[in-house]
Design brief:
By secondary structure, this protein is α+β, with helices and mostly antiparallel strands. The chain has two helices and seven strands, in the order E-E-H-E-E-E-E-E-H. Strand 1 and strand 2 form a beta hairpin.
C-alpha cells in the first residue's frame, strides 16, 4: 500500500495521499465521513520531517495524522489494539500529550483552537 496514491478526499489538505498501511487509509475514510457534533474540517498526513516531536534520548516521533475539527485540533496515531501497551508507544503518547499542552497554550494565547 505504501507505493499507492489515493485521491478523492474532500477534507484532506492534499489532492493525493499515501498511507503506510490499510488501517491508516481506512482511518482517512472515517475522517472524510465524520459529520458528528464536532465535524472534521480538514486533515493531513504530515510528510517525513514536517512535524517532529522529541520523545526520548534525542529520538523524534512523527504522528500519523493531524486533524482539525470545528472546535479542536488533534494528533492521531493508528495502532493495533495489541500495540497500545508497548512501552515505546506509551512514551510517544506522553510526548505527544506534552506537545499538545504547549501547542494549546500557544494557540489560546493567539485566539486559536486547543489541541
Amino acid at each position: 500500500i505504501r507505493r499507492m496514491r489515493f485521491a478523492g478526499f474532500a477534507r484532506c489538505l492534499f489532492e493525493e495521499q499515501k498511507f503506510d498501511s490499510d488501517p491508516e487509509r481506512r482511518f482517512a475514510v472515517l475522517l472524510e465521513d465524520e459529520d458528528g457534533a464536532d465535524p472534521v474540517e480538514r486533515w493531513v498526513k504530515p510528510g517525513p520531517g514536517v512535524l517532529r516531536i522529541d520523545h526520548a534520548n534525542g529520538e523524534t516521533y512523527e504522528p500519523d495524522f493531524v486533524v482539525e475539527t470545528r472546535a479542536r485540533k488533534y494528533l492521531c496515531e493508528v495502532k493495533a489494539t495489541d500495540a497500545l501497551a508497548d512501552a515505546d508507544v506509551q512514551q510517544k503518547a506522553r510526548a505527544a500529550a506534552l506537545w499538545c499542552r504547549h501547542a494549546t497554550d500557544h494557540e489560546l494565547a493567539h485566539d486559536g483552537k486547543p489541541w
